[in-house]
Specification:
single chain
């Protein structure tokens, strides 16, 4: 049977137990149609990149699915009807990830550093003291042999 990964996003005012109940409801639907859900992960209440239906935060849940395509289609139809679910995305994969997903691995998140402080080096600019003066002020570089020094004065 084909393998799928589904992530769905649930409104922020729904309780965590209700989100997990939705996950159980969808896994029961998949099991009833001849498939199985080997892994479910609740990713928590997270900030959205943009507002969705007047929500700034949402609960995220991942499900790995091994089932026939008809079962996944029925699950997506049920998700589209449910007004608590803001968005869902199902993709077909070659193999299912056995361990925890990237969102659940704490070591991956710790390597990123603190994103709020703004002191990380993006690597797209030189340190302040090492740039030549004309590059800082936006003036064109002097042509070689023009007789001008770096300060812009004639010799």
């Amino acid at each position: 049977m084909p393998l799928y990964e589904t992530v769905f996003v649930v409104r922020q005012d729904v309780a965590q137990t209700q989100v997990e109940a939705l996950g159980n409801q969808f896994s029961d639907l998949i099991a009833g149609m001849g498939g199985q859900v080997p892994k479910k992960e609740y990713w928590g209440l997270r900030q959205l990149a943009y507002r969705m239906k007047k929500n700034r935060k949402a609960h995220y849940m991942l499900m790995n699915i091994d089932s026939p395509p008809d079962a996944v289609k029925e699950m997506e139809r049920t998700m589209s009807i449910n007004e608590d679910i803001l968005r869902y995305l199902t993709i077909r994969v070659d193999e299912l990830e056995a361990g925890p997903s990237a969102m659940m691995r704490k070591s991956d998140r710790d390597d990123r550093g603190d994103r709020r402080r703004g002191d990380r080096d993006r690597g797209d600019r030189e340190p302040r003291g090492e740039r030549p003066r004309f590059a800082r002020e936006g003036a064109p570089a002097p042509a070689e042999g023009s007789g001008e020094s770096e300060g812009g004065e004639a010799q």
